[in-house]
Design brief:
By secondary structure, this protein is of the alpha/beta class. 35% of the residues lie in helices and 15% in strands. It has 24 helices and 19 strands.
């Protein structure tokens, strides 16, 4: 039987918002530069701003309070600024609209940096708004001063954003705000930062935006026609094609699949790219790179491969198995909308730059015409019968997906999720062993980008905040956060944001009382065993103390009794504490080899 943790009776604690002086009718009509920010956000269709209150940012919070009363953008209060930045990240992934996060001056701003750095590494559009002490206090060691004469936050953000600026005069305000928004949406996308002294935020302003929001965000459909023609010539001269699909291929996923089926191209994905494909497709050979499948590696090792197409691929370490030559060689054609990504494929025989949808629409047209004239391509061998998870990939130790042993095998947990999650579930997977187990064993036929990781920077606890941000953007969607116990301990308090806003996020903790990736990395790499052990914690009881339903799962039989669909229909979050077998070794051997080559001892947690 399940072991639900008894939820204590709780008196409703929702309080009416504090009444500020700006709510009095006499001052209600006064419009400030903070209101100008809100007006632009509303034009962009953004309905939520994530952040943590503080004195210097108060004028912006007042503007949000006025906005919310009128049905406009509102404030969602996180428990820590880094969690707020992760929420903004998740909001963007769910809605496609720029995530917005705000923080006060000083430590409020610096607490954002890890979350903003994560957005930078994963090319996520986020606007970070931080306050400054009033301009007359600059250089006087004011409390939490973060001007250029103190802890210079604008300079700190310079290395983790695409644009960072200080508004030093109200006449700069609108132009710098517009510049920030436009920078967040250029390709590659990324975070931007604007720092505003509190006296400028509260200064009276007339809001008549000079630039319409339609001009701020535009998906330019440009492409290099000469390179496309050269690629078509190459396709005409080869018999076999293999394809690698990266995280950036989402906008063209439909056209890419049309091309694959017209040409019979066997394809693989990176760990994040698998969000954009049907993993049960008969031409799919699995994940290449971190925690990948032998069938994917074998595809590129096949001597019969004439041409490899890598699409929307940043070609980072985890995407490529440590920049393996099986993928990165002279057979490669790198197709991308970011020129920066080409710096990691100098060996490619062709780079094709431009809007991926436009490029593949053109390729589909050329290929369909060639097919009418009798041109065909051979499908590379390697197809397998469907495995027990429904995909055509090779699995490590597939029998463990059916194990009835306790504690629960992680492979068994992923098999349960494969068959029991609604097809439109948003799955957020946190850094650590959860990455490995989900990458290798969690299979989905959904190809709409609902499987979500943040592997660029590898921030632990990202999934906790990002899942909340996603639910804020789409409260009716089923959302699952898969997180290790070490990561959850870093930001467990953010689950209370989901409770406060009645968001039915399911938080599933892989509880093995260990920093699992550290523990297994040390064992596999022959290192000292140190620093990985965590104390035993009943996370379901922790959730109950916060007024949140918690369930303990100790056996596969209890797991089978879970009804995930019912949990997603609640108006509150649920925490599922799954006691997993910590002795099961995750499929991350390539990661360990990469660390050994670089002289490092231990992977991240």
């Amino acid at each position: 039987m399940l072991k639900p943790v008894e939820r204590p009776k709780i008196v409703a604690t929702t309080k009416p918002p504090a009444v500020s002086a700006l709510e009095h009718p006499a001052q209600e009509e006064e419009t400030t530069y903070a209101d100008m920010i809100v007006e632009y956000l509303q034009q962009l269709g953004i309905d939520s701003v994530f952040g943590v209150p503080g004195g210097a940012i108060e004028p912006f919070l007042n503007a949000l309070a006025r906005s919310e009363r009128k049905g406009g953008p509102r404030l969602v209060v996180a428990r820590h600024e880094c969690g707020a930045a992760f929420m903004a990240d998740g909001y963007y992934r769910e809605t496609g609209k720029m995530g917005v996060v705000c923080a006060t001056t000083g430590p409020g701003a610096t607490n954002l940096i890890t979350g903003i750095s994560s957005a930078m590494a994963d090319e996520i559009s986020v606007l970070a708004i931080t306050a400054q002490t009033p301009l007359p206090k600059f250089g006087k060691r004011a409390l939490q001063e973060s001007s250029c004469t103190a802890i210079d936050t604008v300079a700190l953000f310079r290395h983790c954003t695409q644009f960072t600026t200080l508004v030093s005069h109200h006449e700069q305000f609108e132009s710098k705000l517009v510049s920030a928004i436009m920078a967040a949406h250029r390709v590659p996308h990324g975070p931007v930062h604007i720092s505003i002294p509190s006296d400028i935020l509260r200064a009276p302003a007339k809001i008549k935006p000079h630039i319409h929001s339609d001009l701020l965000v535009h998906d330019f459909s440009i492409s290099d026609n000469l390179s496309i023609d050269r690629l078509c010539e190459k396709l005409g001269r080869v018999d076999t094609i293999a394809m690698y699909i990266g995280a950036g291929a989402g906008a063209a996923s439909e056209q890419i699949m049309q091309f694959i089926e017209l040409t019979g191209t066997a394809f693989v994905t990176g760990p994040m790219g698998k969000a954009w494909v049907d993993e049960t497709h008969p031409l799919y050979r699995g994940v290449y790179g971190f925690a990948g499948h032998d069938s994917a590696r074998e595809l590129f090792q096949n001597n019969g491969v004439d041409l490899i197409l890598a699409v929307g691929a940043a070609l980072g370490e985890l995407d490529t198995g440590g920049w393996n030559h099986d993928l990165l060689n002279t057979k490669l054609v790198h197709i991308d909308s970011s020129v920066e990504h080409f710096t990691r494929s100098p060996m490619a025989n062709l780079h094709v730059f431009g809007n991926l949808r436009a490029i593949f629409s053109s390729l589909v047209e050329h290929t369909a015409t060639a097919r009418k004239w009798g041109r065909t391509w051979e499908t590379l061998p390697g197809k397998r019968e469907p495995n027990l998870l429904g995909s055509h990939t090779s699995l490590n130790e597939p029998e463990k997906c059916l194990s009835d042993e306790a504690p629960v095998k992680p492979q068994r947990l992923m098999a349960y999720l494969t068959f029991n999650l609604p097809s439109n579930t948003r799955v957020f997977v946190d850094a650590g062993n959860a990455w490995a187990w989900a990458t290798h064993y969690l299979v989905s036929a959904d190809n709409q980008g609902r499987y979500r990781l943040a592997m660029g920077y590898g921030s632990m606890s990202w999934a906790v905040g990002a899942a909340v941000g996603s639910a804020t953007g789409n409260p009716s969607a089923p959302i699952l956060c898969l997180v290790g116990d070490g990561s959850y301990l870093m930001s467990a308090q953010e689950i209370t944001v989901a409770a406060q806003h009645n968001l039915a996020v399911v938080f599933m903790i892989l509880n093995d009382s260990a920093l699992g990736m550290v523990m297994h990395g040390q064992q596999m790499g022959g290192q000292e065993s140190i620093g990985w052990e965590l104390n035993k914690i009943d996370y379901a009881a922790m959730a109950a103390a916060m007024g949140i339903d918690g369930v303990v799962i100790e056996t596969p039989q209890q797991l089978q009794q879970l009804n995930m669909r019912d949990l997603f229909l609640k108006n509150s979050p649920t925490l599922i504490d799954v006691r997993i077998d910590k002795n099961e070794v995750p499929p991350m051997g390539d990661r360990i080899k990469g660390l050994a080559v670089n002289g490092s001892a231990t992977p991240g947690g």
